[in-house]
Design a protein that fits this description.
The structure holds two protein chains of two kinds. In chain A, 0% of the residues lie in helices and 55% in strands. By secondary structure, chain A is mainly beta. In chain A, the strands form two sheets. In chain A, strands 2, 4, 5, 9, 10 and 11 form a six-stranded mixed beta sheet that branches. Chain A is globular, with a radius of gyration of 13 Å. By secondary structure, chain B is mainly β. Classes of the chains: A mainly beta, B mainly beta. The interface between A and B is medium-sized, with 23 and 25 residues.
Chain lengths: 110, 115
Amino acid sequence: RKEVEQDPGPFNVPEGATVAFNCTYSNSASQSFFWYRQDCRKEPKLLMSVYSSGNEDGRFTAQLNRASQYISLLIRDSKLSDSATYLCVVRGGGYNKLIFGAGTRLAVHP
Amino acid sequence: NAGVTQTPKFRILKIGQSMTLQCTQDMNHNYMYWYRQDPGMGLKLIYYSVGAGITDKGEVPNGYNVSRSTTEDFPLRLELAAPSQTSVYFCASSPNPGGEATEAFFGQGTRLTVV
């Protein structure tokens, strides 16, 4: 089983739609959780950290369920500029290193 | 505001040649990582380091070597380049775990083609 698993997509949605991505992780001792965004042929960039109580940043909402070892990202009112790959990242394993999921592709169309 | 700097940005190697990908960071992070990303695929961890003098293998270490003599630098060495090593290589650094901000910062990547 992979340490961090995501649905690869692609998710094709119209502008204005709400879309949700899920991610599961295998190590229950994992400490920190993040969502990154990666545009084509560019480096990943932090979208938001994920906190136990859930957190929101504008149109983006992240949730963490430690009991189920599950992380989610909700994007409301999708924009064309949201088209990218979204990477779930967990800090855990040996030495608490950063472990990336394979990413979920989102394509927002007019 | 340099952050994580990778050189070179692009390189073409012939089969069997060797090269070193350079990575340096100015944020005093102990953790540094090397990932490779093949077209249409996710990031795969090659090697990582948790501080000067300490390195460990990731998911795909074969064909690569690393060293960490200083906090700032984490070079990745390719010996005997093979076409299977054609990829985009990303270096990243992060603070120690347990603090408020523990996310990773990435360099812009090195696009390597082995022919």
